[in-house]
Write a structure and sequence with these properties.
It is built from 4 helices and 5 strands; from the N terminus they run H-H-H-H-E-E-E-E-E. By secondary structure, it is α+β, with helices and mostly antiparallel strands. Helix 1 runs antiparallel to helix 2.
């Protein structure tokens, strides 16, 4: 069975269009690999084994390059990483806080869109005292005395 260049081109386009239905961002690279093989078959006479091998190699190289660009742990923005801008902020307790008892802290300027936040602490701190944000634990701020 011989595959003509247009077989690879149609297959590549089908895989790329299938990416719209199955948004996995993997099929598109196999479709792009098929388009590369279509170009290679149009320019040179390749055996079926060579065509399949070229398609597999090009597709896997494209997938590997894709995952290398978006490797885990590489954040280009601080979106969703709230602790970078909050830790170290100083506020005043408006409701006392104690271990196993939540309090509230008010900031002079809004922090993450609000100026009053529910907080926790490892020690009892009376309302009216200044506290510093030590960490973010879920939706709570962990505070300590300044």
């Amino acid at each position: 069975m011989d595959l003509a260049w247009w077989h690879w081109a149609v297959g590549g386009i089908v895989l790329i269009v299938a990416e719209l239905v199955v948004p996995s961002f993997v099929l598109i690279w196999f479709g792009a690999g098929a388009l590369v093989v279509a170009l290679a078959v149009a320019l040179a006479d390749l055996t079926l084994t060579a065509q399949l091998g070229l398609w597999l190699i090009v597709s896997l190289v494209l997938v590997a390059a894709w995952f290398k660009v978006f490797k885990p742990g590489m954040h280009k923005t601080k979106v969703g990483m709230a602790d970078a801008g909050v830790i170290g902020e100083v506020g005043v307790l408006v409701h006392e806080v104690a271990p196993f008892h939540k309090g509230k802290v008010r900031f002079q300027k809004p922090v993450l869109g609000d100026d009053v936040w529910v907080c926790i602490a490892d020690e009892e701190i009376k309302s009216g005292e200044r506290v510093r944000v030590l960490a973010i634990e879920g939706s709570l701020l962990k505070v300590g005395r300044v």
